[in-house]
Amino acid sequence: MLPEIPDHLDHGLSVLFIGFNPSLLSGETGHHYANPRNNFYRILHRAGLTPRLYDASEDQDLLRLGYGFTNIVARPTRGIDDIDRSEYAEGRDILHAKLNEYRPKVACFVGKGVYTEYSKKTNVNWGFQPSPVIPEIHEFVAPSSSGLVRMPMDEIVGIYRQLAEAIAQNEA
């Protein structure tokens, strides 16, 4: 069994990116979004959230940009089908505690499924959510960055660009 990969958390973050759980490769390397088929860092760069293209091995460096990382389930798995309901329930409580402690301006859920597991809401649209679980923290739902996602890359980048624009305008 692979170890959990460390969160990158700090007080005063602009955005805390929240994934489902680490991939097996992330578990092996200790870095978030480490699978080369995962588009996370390419999406951030193309959307204007990062000034250059970062590599997964540099994930801790994004703290300097005000970006942190965590997951609703900490255990690395081959896929979300390997996560059981009890892990989501435990992860939901842990995530809620992290958000309350660190108070990022925006909690960005990388995938609708991550947000629905956290919020227990079923009707969710992309972008900022109208009634956040923790009222002082903006909640933003973005598409998963997995290479398995069938949404066109330009569409995914466009949704993340909404987050970049809100940050630039200091609305989030």
Plain-language structure description:
The protein has one domain: Uracil-DNA glycosylase-like domain (Uracil-DNA Glycosylase, subunit E). The chain is globular and about 45 Å long. The chain contains 5 helices and 5 strands. 32% of the residues lie in helices and 13% in strands. It is α/β, with parallel strands linked by helices and 172 residues long. The chain has a 5-stranded mixed sheet, with helices on both faces. The N and C termini lie far apart (38 Å).
List the helices and strands and how they pair.
Layout: E1 15-19, H1 24-29, H2 40-46, E2 67-71, H3 85-102, E3 106-110, H4 112-119, E4 127-128, E5 138-142, H5 153-168
Parallel strand pairs: 1-2, 1-3, 3-5
Antiparallel strand pairs: 4-5
